[in-house]
Amino acid sequence: MNESVAPGAFAERQPLSPDAFEAAIRAVGAERYHDKHPFHRLLHGGRLDRDQVRAWALNRYCYQEAVPRKDAAFISRVHDRELRREWIHRIHDHDGLGEEAGGIERWLVLTDALGLSRDYVTSRRGALPATKFAVEAYVRFVVEQPLVVAVASSLTELFAPAIHRERISGMLANYDFVDERAVAYFKRRLQQAPRDSGFALNFIKTNARTRAEQDACVDAVRFKCDVLWAQLDALHHAYVTPGITPPGAFRPGGATD
Description:
The protein has helices spanning about 20-30, 40-45, 50-75, 80-95, 105-115, 120-125, 130-145, 145-150, 160-175, 185-205, 210-240. It has 11 helices and no strands.
């Protein structure tokens, strides 16, 4: 039996133009990026106490530590030498290379300034369960998805410079326990994130050739936004309202070593 097909049904699934594809990616950030989470408004507005800021920095370390692991996992799947040569600098940016200490070290300078011991931070013992689940879900996503989709998941970096600028000014203005050295991580990312996102955006616009691949890339950015949002949901739930802190997690006034 013949089935009628609505006029234009096939045309609707044609690949988006490069500009429309990019616009669809950017629309995800406009709707879902974690700069819109209430926890960030509290953080940047100086409405958190020292322990709440410590909880944020401690949990965010889990994400920082996961980034070079997911990038190493990505590289292990790449047969294109030039793509590996480009992507490997992301690991160097976080882990350091030679005299360059790297972003993880700069993050530990922040947790130092907040009075958290490095052993405690790097052990991840005090991190929330939801934080650890979220960041490991991101690593697994990059391991399991097609390369072009895995690249797309990094594109929340398109939206990062604005939140970094807001964080630098807000934290310096509102917290006397945060100084210029403590925000060095965010200052460096103001240069790194546009470089990385520019390459990744061009890569997916070139290599996502079908509408299904393009849709999967947009969904990857949505997934990554969810990973970032889930971490803030966990922080807000544990340390702001209603203040339910899971067993073993960092507790204000508790041990930090």
